[in-house]
Amino acid sequence: xxxxxxxxxxxxxxxxxxxxxxxxxxxxxxxxxxxxxxxxxxxxxxxxxxxxxxxxxxxxxxxxxxxxxxxxxxxxxxxxxxxxxxxxxxxxxxxxxxxxxxxxxxxxxxxxxxxxxxxxxxxxxxxxxxxxxxxxxxxxxxxxxxxxxxxxxxxxxxxxxxxxxxxxxxxxxxxxxxxxxxxxxxxxxxxxxxxxxxxxxxxxxxxxxxxxxxxxxxxxxxxxxxxxxxxxxxxxxxxxxxxxxxxxxxxxxxxxxxxxxxxxxxxxxxxxxxxxxxxxxxxxxxxxxxxxxxxxxxxxxxxxxxxxxxxxxxxxxxxxxxxxxxxxxxxxxxxxxxxxxxxxxxxxxxxxxxxxxxxxxxxxxxxxxxxxxxxxxxxxxxxxxxxxxxxxxxxxxxxxxxxxxxxxxxxxxxxxxxxxxxxxxxxxxxxxxxxxxxxxxxxxxxxxxxxxxxxxxxxxxxxxxxxxxxxxxxxxxxxxxxxxxxxxxxxxxxxxxxx
Length: 499
What we know:
The protein is of the alpha+beta class. It has helices at residues 2-11, 17-38, 44-71, 128-133, 142-154, 157-168, 174-209, 267-283, 299-307, 330-345, 349-364, 368-381, 388-403, 410-415, 423-437, 446-460, 464-474, 483-486, 491-498; strands spanning 84-87, 90-104, 107-118, 217-227, 236-246, 252-260, 290-295, 313-314, 317-321, 324-328, 479-480.
């Protein structure tokens, strides 16, 4: 087999001598590994050694091939390179080569690239070769950077660094890893909304074609969770939001996520959620949707409904308001119903039987919330000398259900195919924040935490690949310019002439 491949290389289209040498070396090393394995009967230990040696051989030779190929992109001779480059209306002049260590899927390589210095003083230099290869933050190729981003969204910094060294032979410091994560996040966030809108529209088209008697539902929700912050007295509340699509049978087809580190008023999350909803509704050209907002009745969810959703205009018909249905989460309502049970009956069997019956009424009866309040009032009247603690529990539960009774028409919501629970949003607090940011001993700064949250919501939303593709397509590339027609005086030269 080795002789056949070598003869094919000799007879094929002419290959660069150095590349041919690398390929022949690769084949020779592969032959050595195979011959060694075939010379003795296999055992588990020998099989392990064979695969390990084969992996190391392929990885090292692929690293050499990548290094050779990337260093051939730019001309070897200084005189053969463009004298000037233009990037974003700025011009740069050619300077000598300098080396840089770049991480790839196969290990670290040395990339020798030309430096281009800005004509305008004070502007940073550029490296056209790195820009054309898509090197992220001057540290890693796009293929490795994409994997690091995916892995960082789920794993701790220590795990990512260990994985890099073990799987890719790359030894980085925490500073280098954070630099790449920050650079990657900045690029991906620019296209997060676009990718999420495309995902939701795809789900809506699927929902429109589904079988059932209900209209498709676009459901939004938001919630908060306390996070361990560094150099802050006590935890602060981070915020998360979800946008889901339900088909004509009320089945959830998919969800996209948003997340934000602690911020007074949660304004950034509100802006992101509003922008996402309006973009989806503006581009949707299918059947009429039901719009639902399912949350607990906390301060920020309530404020968002009153100030944004209630006043949101139809992007296709600005003269009309959108009809958002705010639904109080059924399970939060059951929590307050349970407090009424404790206030009325204490921890007795009769109390639990009453709670089970009221929960059924609340969910299934047409006027369930009214009947629950009436039953609770009748039992409270018959209570003999309740303690202050039981009285406080009853008043808290009764007050909540009475205050938000018009948001608890669960029987009607279910007939319309609307969701009555904010379980997906509650779960978002766990998936977006708890599983990654609240591991043992972790504390966070605002900036570092937001980098991870942004990477995580893109991955959890199922739009990582499309977002990364959009980011790579958008990256600017320098272009050679004609020296004769491109010269522009620098600011220093202009000042000297003026003087």
